[in-house]
UniProtKB/TrEMBL annotation:
Source organism of the structure: Anaeromyxobacter diazotrophicus
Domain Solute-binding protein family 3/N-terminal: 38-267
Extent of the signal sequence: 1-26
Family annotation (CDD domains): PBP2_BztA
PANTHER family hit by this protein: AMINO ACID ABC TRANSPORTER PERMEASE, AMINO-ACID ABC TRANSPORTER-BINDING PROTEIN YHDW-RELATED
GO terms under biological process: amino acid transport
Full protein name: Amino acid ABC transporter substrate-binding protein
InterPro entries: Bact_solute-bind_prot3 (IPR051455), SBP_3_CS (IPR018313), Solute-binding_3/MltF_N (IPR001638)
Record carries keyword Signal: yes
Transmembrane segments: none
Keyword line: Signal, Transport
């Protein structure tokens, strides 16, 4: 009887210790990533500014930086990432099956996707909306003048349903020309097979950079939907969800704190701000709450950069895509980018 009571007591104590506040247990995905020595990240193949390869075969883009930031936080090396190219129809199956650890592929967060696919979005890294691009020679200045047009659209995207609902609401008809991937759509559109191309506004800006003469193509003013884009993970692994979520938040808050990739080391030794000290790994230890070490967020900033660094490098006015920050500015600058306190 005494032995039985002692066994129960020890079991209860062990359970209490593993669930105590301030202690994080490694989940299945984190264990697998550490054992494997790399983060496997599902990305787009032709999302200019979001994910793609440069002339040297190196993956670059806003979504690529998200993957590298997770690797910096977890594996202490932003280069320990294996990128898996996925089209729109493959992406969710790849995440559900465990083929990838993170889906960072300019994917819209919606109720249907969040509640029915066994995945969960960890945040928003780009606020977008759906639009239309047409050849300038068509002399169309509004999407409302596209009645009867052939529209290029990608299969397995929110764009398909959005455009159907928008045209119906405006009493317009159109013919949908559907393709499996962005490369096929762009080839068809720029060769004249469709009168218009509809997708996220950021995708249209990126696609135009692939045209022989970008100035021959015009993005129309209508924005017909909300497209909050962000990374996603499998549902049910809370520890991994928290790591990916707070990696994004750390990039946003680091920019808010006035840190840049270039100033991280200097501020690490000179700043007296508790927020900056926490972010750069010389203040309060926030890593233990995620099952990580104290310098997790410092490595994100040092090896990858803040959200602002990543945006300017991949999408900003000095890039071929040439997008303004717009609503993706920090909340302190009138935008929508906002992160809970990293403390």
């Amino acid at each position: 009887m005494e032995l039985s009571r002692r066994t129960v007591t020890l079991a209860a104590l062990a359970a209490a210790l593993t669930t105590a506040p301030g202690l994080a247990r490694a989940g299945k995905t984190l264990d697998a990533v550490r054992h494997r020595g790399e983060v496997v990240c599902g990305v787009n193949t032709s999302g200019a500014g979001f994910s793609g390869t440069d002339s040297q075969g190196r993956w670059t883009g806003l979504d690529v930086d998200m993957c590298r930031a997770v690797a910096a936080a977890v594996l202490k090396d932003a280069n320990k990432v294996r990128f898996v190219p996925l089209n729109s129809q493959q992406r969710f199956t790849a995440l559900q099956s465990g083929e990838v650890d993170v889906l960072s592929r300019n994917t819209t967060w919606s109720l249907t996707r969040d509640a029915s696919l066994g995945i969960v979005f960890t945040g928003i890294n780009y606020f977008d909306g759906q639009g239309f691009m047409v050849p300038k020679k068509l002399k169309v200045d509004s999407a409302k003048k596209l009645g009867g047009a052939q529209l290029c659209v990608q299969a397995g995207t929110t764009s398909e349903k959005n455009v159907a609902e928008w045209f119906a609401a405006h009493g317009l008809k159109y013919k949908s020309v559907v393709f499996d991937n962005a490369e096929a759509i762009q080839a068809a559109f720029f060769s004249g097979r469709c009168q218009a191309y509809t997708t996220d506004m950021s995708d249209l800006a990126g696609a135009r950079t692939h045209a022989q003469n970008p100035s021959d193509w015009v993005v129309l003013p209508e924005v017909i939907s909300k497209e909050p884009l962000g990374p996603a993970v499998r549902r049910g692994d809370d520890e991994w969800f928290q790591i990916v979520r707070w990696t994004l938040f750390a990039m946003i808050e680091a920019e808010e704190d006035g840190i840049t990739q270039a100033t991280a080391d200097q501020l690490r030794t000179s700043s007296k701000s508790p927020d900056v000290q926490r972010m750069l790994g010389v203040g309060e230890d926030t890593g233990k709450l995620l099952g990580l070490d104290k310098e997790w967020s410092y490595r994100i900033v040092k090896q990858v950069g803040t959200y602002g660094d990543s945006f300017e490098r991949n999408l900003g006015p000095k890039t071929p895509v040439g997008l303004p920050r717009g609503v993706n500015k920090l909340w302190t600058q009138g935008g929508l980018m906002y992160a809970p306190p990293v403390r």
